[in-house]
Amino acid sequence: MVAHASGRPWLIGQWQSDEIIVLAAGNTRLAIAGRTAIRESEVTRALAAVRMPSDLDELARRIPGAVHLLLSQNGTTRSQGTVSTVRQIFHATVDGVTVASSSIASLGRLAGARIDPEALALRLLSPLGAPWPLSQRTFWAGIQAVPVGHWLAVDRAGSARTHRWWHPPEPVRPLDEAASEVRESLSRAIAGRVPGGRVVTADLSGGLDSTSVAFLAAAAGADLTTFHVQPLDPANTDTVWAERAAAALAGARHRVVPRSRPANLFQVDVEQGTGAGQWEGPQLWIGGWAHLEDLERRVTAEGSDLHLMGFGGDTLFGAMPAHLWSLARRHPLRALPTIRRSRLLNRWSWSACLRGLTDRSTFAQAVAALPAQIDAPPPRPPHLDLGWVPPVRIPPWATAAAAETVRDALRTAAASQPQPLDPDRVRHQVLEAMAFEGALLRQMRAATGPSVEWDAPMLDHQVVEAALSVRIADRSAPGQYKPLLTAAMRGLVPDAILDRPDKGEFSAEMHEGLRRNRQTLLELCDGSLLGELGLIDVAALRARLLNPGPVAHHLTILQNTLACESWLRSSAVASARPGRKTGVLR
Where are the alpha helices (DSSP H) in 525-577? Predict the structure, then answer.
């Protein structure tokens, strides 16, 4: 327990000894939860200048790492997580007073919350569920998440408001300048996590993101062991590139998880993660927990309680769908060669390019157009979409009532005139995807408990700021993969690895996972709770499981439904399930 200046209880939770710092300046208290490298004396001096909670904004931007910042000052509290939502704040009203928590499990039990059937209907949408802003909606009636880039204020009377503290930087830096800042911010992020030769493990998939993190950890002096998970498809060259990276990391130990491993995708266990990790909502990575458990055992056997990953790299440094639209708006002449090359590589028609590039719809208009599209056939390749919101679809086994519930929620969201996370389309998409990856990492941490901390330095807000500061024109380059990250790692990661011309593809894992687990998944259809709620036609779902189709996106559309079904069956949420006649669907 951490107390206010008055001595009354303020924070209650569980932390490792090095996971929370509490500083004081007069009646002001600041708690920093999470590992960070700061000079406490400097932060205390800065804290003394804080006259009201909003004065903490500048200090919050300077503190490195992915941390919760919690302030108590003269009866008012400020609670905030990270821009990426790796660390998130949720809140609910309990007996007329706002209670904030990093854990939906704790908050839900305290508030007696029940599952929201409408949120479940939205989760059926593919590929990633509901778009922003509905993507931040919790699955629990009465529990809200603090919006991205905001903090929660609770006053003496227990009333709450949210305030924005973070805005993305303007994209004005040239490539070399932004690359230098990316490298510096990533180096700081990792150095703060691995002080004094700490035993650390890290992914080494063969991709550029995890490879960069591994090299930076080695450079920071970590006692490093890497893990490479062999892809099932022999044509996937990730193993070749991982071996080359391992050879260049001579001071580290390297382990290989063989392709014959038992853990696989679509391996569903409804009792998996029955504690706090299962409370937040359906898994964002269906069947991935079996692999996570296997990796957790391997990591702890190496003596590590911190495992570093490259999460966030594809989002920050890769090509997002709306990049061409943003590029054409800011740099029309420079955009022409890129547009021409992209059109030829993807076999887009000129008419489709022109429609996409000349689209002037606002974000709110894009959300308003979704209700009419959700039950349309999936776009056929080659498909070009330069809009604010990638196409979302309700699965064909969803009931008419579920589809109408989703349409109503989308119409309500559009009517509120929602604002994007950034006025620029591609930067909005980057921030929305960052929030998704942050939630995935948050779920991973909660599911496995304290034995291993899964961590992704690329999701730190200072790294995000550095990546977003680059000019839109420098986010991509003809014939070059992730030019900003490549430039940032030049001189640390061998050139031969940075100049890799291809990227791994993992549809084989999905097909094999479905083949191995088909019978278990079919058993989920027996007594389906989603069926009882009126959300799905169970016969239609069973038919798709027996004949999913030959292409990976035919499997992707199954994931959200199976995640919702297995989550509802978990004993962790059994007492909070909506009844057959109590939900919004009848």
Answer: 529-532, 538-546, 552-569
